[in-house]
Design a protein that fits this description.
Blueprint: H1 2-75, H2 80-91, H3 94-112, H4 119-146, H5 151-157, H6 177-188, H7 195-214, H8 220-251
Helix pairs in contact: 1-8, 2-7, 3-4, 3-6, 4-6, 4-8, 6-7, 6-8, 7-8
């Protein structure tokens, strides 16, 4: 009888120490998580401030002079560069880029799902897909809310600035969908491709951004904002997924 009582007491003591140890571990991880989150929030805040400053500077001092220069030297002279950039933008629309990305990710997932040791790669593919879709949603909402006049409206009617709340193509200049989706795809696939391929893809995305300004479809500030949104969408999706996975591991 005494032996059983002693055994029960030891078991309770052990359980108590185990609970205390588990609580300390969770507290430690929560504090570490809090520090990590504060650091990441600071980085996100700096990115947003940097983007806002660049957008404001471009809006006030760069957009119209650059548009006037391009219109005078390329558009009025029927430059081949202008025609090429205009056609490129019509062929590679944001919706088509998104569709091709979704199809490529789904097909790759179907091909790899029966393979061994590819679970990590498949997870990264789904993160890339979520980033692209999230980016497209942000761009659409901002275009409708801000409803900024496109460059053609300034050239033909002298309209510059924001109309707000509109779905019309002529007044949904900012942010650039091509720039956002292009940069998002390039950055989302950085962990899935080689460094050389990533740099090549990033250069193509930057060239696409520049082409939208040359084709006078967007102002420079629209492209800057679009590029930031594309990269930030990936960072935010990855951070949210990492946070959710970390919380699940702590709870377990």
């Amino acid at each position: 009888m005494k032996f059983h009582l002693c055994q029960n007491a030891m078991q309770k003591t052990l359980n108590c120490h185990t609970e205390i140890f588990t609580l300390k571990i969770r507290t430690f991880l929560s504090r570490r998580l809090g520090k990590t989150m504060n650091k990441k929030l600071s980085i996100h805040l700096l990115l947003i401030i940097n983007c806002a400053v660049l957008y404001g500077v471009s809006y006030e001092w760069l957009d119209i002079p650059l548009l006037t220069c391009i219109h005078k030297n390329l558009v009025l002279s029927n430059s081949n560069l202008f025609e090429f950039c205009l056609r490129l933008g019509k062929i590679l629309t944001p919706s088509r880029i998104m569709l091709l990305t979704v199809v490529a990710i789904v097909l790759t997932n179907l091909y790899l799902r029966n393979k061994q040791n590819y679970k990590s790669l498949i997870n990264k593919l789904w993160v890339a897909l979520a980033s692209v879709l999230f980016c497209g949603g942000i761009v659409f909402v901002l275009k409708c809310l801000l409803a900024r006049y496109r460059p053609i409206m300034f050239l033909e009617h002298g309209l510059y600035g924001f109309h707000f709340l509109s779905l019309k193509h002529s007044i949904n200049s900012t942010p650039s969908g091509h720039a956002a989706i292009g940069m998002c795809v390039a950055y989302a696939f950085r962990n899935l491709i080689s460094k050389t391929t990533f740099i090549s893809l990033l250069i193509l995305a930057v060239l696409m951004c520049i082409s939208r300004v040359i084709a006078i479809q967007h102002y420079a500030s629209d492209v800057i904002l679009g590029g930031y949104i594309g990269i930030y969408a990936v960072i935010l999706v990855e951070a949210l997924i990492s946070l959710s996975l970390f919380k699940v591991s702590v709870e377990k």
